[in-house]
Amino acid sequence: MYQLEICANSVASALAAEQAGAHRVELCNNLAEGGSTPSYGQIKWCLANLTIPVWPLIRPRGGDFLYTDAEFETILLDIVTCKEMGCDGVVIGVLLANGNVDVQRCRKLIDAAYPMPVAFHRAFDMTNDLKKSLEDLIELGVVRVLTSGGKASAQLGIQQIATLVAQAGNRIEVMPGAGINTENILELAKITGAKCFHTTAKSIVNSGMQFQNNDSKMSDHTLNEFVHEQTDAAKVEKLLSILKKL
Q1: Domain at 60, CATH number
Q2: Taking the CB of residue 210, how many other CB atoms lie within 10 A of it?
Q3: Is 56 exposed, middle or buried (0-12, 13-18, 19+ CB in 10 A)?
Q4: Is pTM beyond 0.90 here?
Q5: Of 119, 154, 177, 178, which has the most beta carbons under 10 Å away?
């Protein structure tokens, strides 16, 4: 009855998600920026080695969801590539400057993806009217929308998510995400009425490097080059055990 989607930031995370029993993987890169499009190699490896559905996130960069013509063309190309590779679906999100869903561009993306299904990511939470935006996505034929209820976390947006689930009915799946963990997933399930949940279920993994040069940095987004985030199979298993009790 209940499902768990794992936001996997690497092939290792995707593999851990499947081994722990997750129902679906949203494959991405760059969690520090909210996720971006994974590489061709990552997608191809997951399709070849996983049995659960693989849905790549299609987002050309971090930041907002207002894209130039060149950026939009790359989104289209990524979607066509995913369809040719045999992905189970893709996850998109494009907005207008006024905060509305960019219905015209989204329709082009959905047409390009057909018959591959399309979900909408948390660009939804950055729209100016969640109720109207949900109706726009339903009319477009989007099958699922990821949301924190317009708040910083699903826990903070729990009442708004419940309202969206009720509004959606059976027309689209409303999937809570952002900060979901073993401490709050039960409450979120009971209050929102949602049936599918999205989380990274990640932990910090220490580097296996024996030599570590601590005088150099590769990124502005990390204090330590010799750790990285990865989906934790034990956390996935615990989340699933909680959902199975409902």
Answers
A1: 3.20.20.380
A2: 5
A3: buried
A4: yes
A5: 154
Give residue-wise pLDDT tens across range 14-33.
999 999 999 999 999 999 89
Question: Domain residues for 91?
Answer: 3-244
- Whether the pLDDT of residue 222 is over 90: the answer is no
Of 211, 218, 146, 213, give the one whose Cα is nearest residue 180: 146
Residue ranges of alpha helices (H) inside the chain are: 11-20, 40-49, 69-85, 103-113, 130-140, 158-168, 185-192, 233-244
Say if residue 56 is preceded by a cis peptide, omega within 30 of 0. no
Phi and psi based region of residue 118 (left: phi greater than 0; alpha: psi -120 to 50; beta: remaining)? beta
Instruction: Please tell me the distance from the alpha carbon of residue 225 to that of residue 56, in angstroms, as a whole number.
Output: 26
Q: Count up the domains in the chain and report the number.
A: 1
- The tokens for 112 are 């390009």
Specify the DSSP element, H or E, that contains 24: strand 24-27
